[in-house]
Specification:
The chain has 591 residues and is an all-alpha fold. 74% of the residues lie in helices and 1% in strands.
Length: 591
């Protein structure tokens, strides 16, 4: 018999959906005043609202699901994939938040014609707009919809696609009419609903199965798992695939320049100070939030060690824990929390994806001189088409983790070049085209090898069975040398464009082609101290996260050491913030 929700649960869910619709209708007129209002909230938003919106968007209905899948399949060490992303966020705090805000652009694809010139820059902008705004966006929304469908299937006794359809219509309505204003306002409420309800489930589930001592013993005895499941670090006494995977996570996979919807949020802030504070809030929260779901994932191993016989396999583990421990009212609240996380991500991707299509394709290449009313009308149509497209392809994804891995493969090496392009003048549009196309071709080649030649081997390991981390490392080792070769075989960016970009953004770094007076402009983002500043931020972020984890596992000495590291990192970050923001204020450089 399929589990059902009580009447009070449906009332809680209905109240939340009604609130979301009202927000969309109330803010529709303000959002429709201009494209800048629709996509960036007029660049007037405070850091705390933007920061909460960034956190709310960064996890969706898929995030607890994929964390649970990873831990059940690979053990706790796989969580470093999520943790390693915070290295890029640290760079976002100390470097990129200010530079993105200074650029004053709507999308990160628009960056290409700010940084590069000519037809190659225009083509790259259009390519990026189509790839990120349509292809990658549809994949992301599809796996979010797929994850939500597994939750509905496990918890609600109605047709899952009918339930998903209702949620999609509500998210589409307020995203279409209220634009970015509606996104951040609903994100603010969604943040507290999702975090509060998921924290409640984690605490209840952890205590109901007897706390850490009981959990540790039961996981160690669970078929297909064992004591190593709960080890945060691999065995360092000898080389193994787990150690290699950790190295790849910390050295290879994290590279990014806080582009995408993070950049959109930074650009919506009042000024550089607010952009930096919003990113810092996201970075600290990002490293610690995973423990909300890790605890439930571990409890799911205790309760359901093997789910291979079920329709969705490990994808169902998290909602099955919800069914096991939550009664009427609280179950409805947590389902609402998942709805909040789901809709927060969907509305962001609809607005963000439409910004690419409108700004970098339609307005740039199709119709450049229309009225704002025309652009807003076309944007709403694009939002509708994106939602329909994502809904149609959602059933194709059977595992959320596999969808994450697929998208990561298509971006192999892209993040590294995205960071370097700010600080080295010689990077060109041809460099970025080479890495974007190269990673996509290798992803297609991987699919062909797995399907047509499963016996192919690498280092004695069958390619079809090779771990995702190894494949990405191999991809990067190919596309980066090729892209650098392309860089030196193609013309450099003209000096006038480089000078214009540097004056506007003031990144610092390796810009020897420019006059010393230009390179010496004040308030450069990168300096000789930047590496130490980033390390201070990492001490804060990872110190907080490891303190939570070690306390949860009753390793109190290590938890205390992590707290000390976090405090030192916080002190360093505070000193940096006062110094840098004070310099901006005194020089009049606050954008």
């Amino acid at each position: 018999m399929k589990p059902s929700l009580a009447t009070v649960d449906y009332l809680v869910i209905a109240a939340y959906l009604a609130f979301s619709l009202i927000v969309g209708l109330v803010l529709s007129r303000k959002a429709s005043e201009s494209s800048e209002n629709y996509f960036l909230g007029g660049r007037t938003l405070p850091w705390w609202l933007v920061g909460i919106s960034m956190v709310a968007t960064s996890f969706a209905s898929d995030t607890p699901i994929v964390v649970t899948e990873m831990i059940r399949q690979y053990g706790l060490q796989r969580i470093w994939w999520l943790f390693s992303a915070c290295i890029g966020l640290s760079l976002g705090v100390f470097l990129f938040a200010r530079m993105w805000r200074r650029a004053e652009i709507t999308t990160d694809a628009e960056f290409y014609e700010l940084r590069y010139s000519g037809r190659s820059a225009a083509f790259l902008r259009g390519f990026k707009g189509a790839w990120s705004g349509v292809v990658a966006n549809l994949i992301t929304m599809s796996w979010v919809i797929n994850a939500m469908s597994s939750i509905i299937t496990t918890l609600v006794d109605i047709n899952r696609w009918l339930a998903i359809g209702i949620c999609v219509v509500v998210a589409l309505t307020y995203a279409m009419f209220s634009g970015f204003y509606g996104v951040v306002v609903t994100d603010f409420v969604q943040f507290f609903i999702a975090i509060g309800s998921m924290l409640y489930l984690a605490v209840v589930a952890w205590n109901r199965v007897g706390g850490f001592e009981a959990i540790e013993a039961k996981v160690a005895a669970a078929p297909g798992h064992g004591a190593r499941t709960l080890e945060l670090f691999p065995d360092l006494s000898h080389f193994n695939m787990d150690l290699l995977a950790l190295f790849i996570f910390l050295v290879v996979l994290w590279w990014n320049d806080s582009g995408g919807y993070h950049m959109q949020r930074m650009s919506s802030c009042k000024n550089e100070k607010h952009a930096t504070l919003a990113t810092l809030f996201l970075a600290v929260f990002q490293t610690s939030r995973a423990w909300l779901w890790i605890g439930v994932a571990i409890v799911s191993i205790v309760l359901f060690p093997d789910l291979s016989h079920t329709q969705f396999g490990d994808t169902q583990a998290y909602p099955m824990v919800m069914n096991a421990f939550l009664g009427p009212g609280m179950k409805g609240l947590l389902v609402t929390g998942f709805l909040a996380a789901f809709m927060s991500t969907i509305d962001t991707h609809l607005n963000w994806g439409a910004s690419y299509v409108m700004t970098d394709i339609y307005r740039r290449f199709v119709r450049r001189d229309a009225s704002e009313r025309h652009y807003i009308a076309v944007t709403k149509l694009v939002v509708l088409m994106l939602m329909v497209g994502a809904s149609l392809i959602a059933p194709l994804f059977k595992s959320v983790t596999s969808a994450w891995e697929l998208l990561a493969m298509t971006q192999a090496g892209v993040g590294l070049i995205a960071v370097v392009r700010w600080f080295w003048w010689r990077i060109s549009a041809y460099t970025e085209l080479a890495v974007l196309i190269g990673s996509s071709v290798l992803t297609l080649l991987n699919a062909a090898l797995v399907h047509w030649w499963p016996a192919a081997t690498l280092f004695g390991i069958p390619w079809a069975e090779a771990r995702f981390e190894l494949k990405v490392a191999v991809f990067i080792s190919i596309v980066i040398p090729v892209s650098l070769l392309v860089t030196y075989l193609t013309p450099p960016v003209e000096r006038e464009r480089l000078e214009s970009f540097y004056r506007r953004v003031r990144p610092g770094g390796f810009w020897g082609v420019l006059d010393p007076a230009i390179r010496a402009l004040p308030n450069r983002a990168a300096s000789a101290r930047s590496i130490a500043d980033v390390l201070g931020g990492l001490m804060l972020m990872f110190g907080v996260s490891l303190a939570i984890g070690y306390a949860l596992f009753h390793r109190y000495e290590l938890a205390l050491a992590a707290v000390v590291v976090a405090v030192l990192g916080a002190a360093w970050t505070y000193t940096w913030f006062r110094r840098e923001m004070g310099a901006l204020t005194s020089s009049g450089g606050m954008v």
